[in-house]
Write a structure and sequence with these properties.
The chain is of the alpha/beta class and 226 residues long. The protein folds into two domains: 2-57; 62-222, no CATH class. The protein is 24% helix and 31% strand. The chain is globular, with a radius of gyration of 17 Å. It binds pimelic acid and magnesium ion. It is an enzyme of class 6 (ligase).
């Protein structure tokens, strides 16, 4: 199997990214799909696009997908279910609203709202994953569920908040092992590049092991049993 990654940018500003693991016969199709996604993007014309192919040499770790819900609950309500208070949520939201376009996720302490990763504008990128699913999700939703399933199922992770940085995509989600993947419509206004992925963790997390799990370990997400 092969890991395929794409990222594109404009004057070093993140425009788009994509990631999967596939078998050799599917590589050409995936490359074309990722090229189209990154090159022709509503966030703007690009001046850089990188496509990377790497053979996966380690066995894939299997992860169950989080259940998906369309309840359109509020972020505040969902956060309170996992004991994230308003102040910490506000801190997370400030990263989503700042002028930076992080290509990956930001890790925040659930105790004091401090940013714990040292990856600057890059953030932590969840990579080396695939989703073996019977469902016909669209690409965007399938990717988001796969990433959320990986992010949330590690010791010390409390929850994740995601807002797309695409100009016209206004559905985001809040995810945790207890709430599942909760889609939230109109999480932001149309026409804004504000967005990001915030991971809330407690102080039991082993950050080095977590980063290795998210960025290096090959992962296969499978459907949750009904
Ligand atoms: C993105 O790919 O821009 C993030 C989208 C997250 C929400 C996906 C959904 O459930 O609609
Ligand atoms: Mg995007």
């Amino acid at each position: 199997m092969y890991s395929i990654k794409m990222r594109s940018s404009q004057q070093s500003k993140h425009i788009s990214g994509a990631e999967t693991i596939c078998d050799e016969p599917a590589i050409a199709d995936v490359l074309l799909r990722f090229f189209n996604k990154g090159f022709y993007h509503e966030n703007g014309a690009i001046d850089f696009l990188n496509l990377k192919i790497e053979k996966v040499t380690r066995p894939l770790t299997t992860i169950q997908s989080l259940p998906i819900y369309d309840n359109n609950d509020t972020i505040t309500n969902l956060a309170s279910q996992v004991h994230i208070n308003a102040e910490i949520l506000q801190k997370a939201w400030s990263y989503i609203e700042d002028a930076n376009n992080y290509s990956g996720a930001i890790i925040l302490s659930v105790h004091n709202g401090q940013r714990l990763d040292d990856t600057g504008l890059r953030g932590i990128r969840v990579t080396r994953f695939m989703f073996e699913t019977q469902h016909n999700y669209n690409d965007r939703i399938q990717d988001a569920i796969t990433i959320a399933s990986c992010i949330n199922q590690f010791p010390g992770v409390i929850a994740e908040l995601c807002v797309s940085d695409d100009l016209t995509y206004t559905t985001g989600y809040f995810a945790s092992t207890s709430t599942g993947y909760q889609r939230i419509k109109n999480i932001k206004q149309k026409g804004s590049r504000n967005g990001g992925r915030i991971i809330f963790v407690d102080n039991t997390i082993n950050l080095e092991a977590y980063r290795n799990y998210l960025e290096i370990l090959p992962k296969k997400v499978i459907d949750t049993k009904a």
